[in-house]
Amino acid sequence: MTAPRQMKLNAFIHATGHHVAAWRHPDAQADAGVNFEHYAQLAKTAEAAKFDALFLADTVAIRDGNIESASRTARYIVQFEPLTLLAGLAAVTERLGLIATASTTYNEPYHIARKFASLDHISEGRAGWNLVTSATEGEALNFSREKHLEHALRYERAREFAEVVTGLWDSYEDDAFPRDKAEGRFFDPDKLHVLNHAGKHFRVRGPLNTARSPQGRPVIVQAGSSEAGKQLAAETADVVFTAQQTLEEAQAFYADVKARAVAAGRSADAIKILPGVSPVVGRTRAEAQATFEKLQSLIHPVVGVSLLSSMIGGFDLSGYDLDGPVPDLPETNNGKSRQALLFGIAKRENLTIRGLYEWIAGARGHWTVVGSPEEIADQLQERFEQGGADGFNVMPPYLPGGLDDFVALVVPELRRRGLFRTEYEGRTLRENLGLPYPHHSAAGLAQAAE
Ligand SMILES: Cc1cc2nc3c(=O)[nH]c(=O)nc-3n(C[C@H](O)[C@H](O)[C@H](O)COP(=O)(O)O)c2cc1C
Predict the structure, then answer these.
(1) Residue with the nearest Cα to atom 6 of ligand 1?
(2) Alpha carbon of 224 to ligand 1 centroid (Å)
(3) If we measure between CA atoms, which residue out of 136, 128, 148 comes closest to residue 222?
(4) Do 181 and 37 fall into the same domain?
């Protein structure tokens, strides 16, 4: 008998929390960005609750375009480099998946292949790579560039980048290392594969100097929702993160990406779709509402306007009437889907500039739910059971309290409904996500030859 379908849950961690004013919450760990113990405790909390993974987002620049706003914000100002932090968290956890963002625009494939394969070995099969093309002009300035690469070119480079990384991960076959001291054979040369990649953006000979990792290949995650983003994800990602506000938008995105994956010759189950959700939970709805209003009251207008300006593509809104309508602005070269999503909210909800920045202050356009454990479980269950999600990227509004509340109040309710695991199914992130083991391409060839 097949096991009932259950939700996959990630803890999407931003140092002090996802709400733009999280660091000012009285219970938030304001020095979180440089506090390893804080992250270690969050990881242990997520593992004790049997979450699939902890995810660390990243950008390779601070957002100091508006220094007044930047000086009043904790997000992306100071934080650990994510892979370095995950290596530390691997040592204080055993089953929790460890997913980090790394940009294909501001990295080289050989480095990325090596770092994630190493993390997969260190964590005994729990590594995941969130492949992004980076979304801000500021990052280009830290890598000897005047401008951020064009959107289409970024994705073209990302596609080749992913191809090279997965090719390097197959440098050695699973059983390539006899380490036979008596015979003096360390590895079997027939099980070494030199990549010799030559493409438009990269020339990479290989092989990688890291053995094939416990998961075969670390899990690949993607978070792009534009046309190019969805197509790349459907062809190469194991997991897709996305921001979808309404059930209908979530269902449309889910059906679209799954259909593209099947059209690309994959099974629909081989790709898991995890929309973001920022749950503000209380024992009662009133308690949750009070927590939400507390956070909203801590938003400094300069920070709110600056957040909105960066999310809609870097257009400075500080000169506009905050209580006036959101202006029509041209399409951005930055995150296309996020800009479209925010303009959609403004139109649908008829919001002013202040109204829109207050709307996105909690989770930057991701779905925010405020309520009792039952009310939040109802909404997650609806999206999960009605073709909108395979699980969720849980975005605690402030930390550690926002994660502690979700784990203490919502997880037991999801379990009571049979919607979430009580024990891990396996040892690796792939096993717990229910993803197939990616056999070495040579093994496939050998089987084909039989
Ligand atoms: C859950 C989630 C996490 C993301 N994490 C990052 C990140 O860590 N770093 C980053 O530069 N972009 C991140 N992004 C942005 C995406 O990579 C991408 O730029 C954005 O979704 C726009 O994609 P598009 O241009 O394909 O529409 C994230 C997006 C989502 C939905």
Answers:
(1) 57
(2) 5
(3) 128
(4) yes
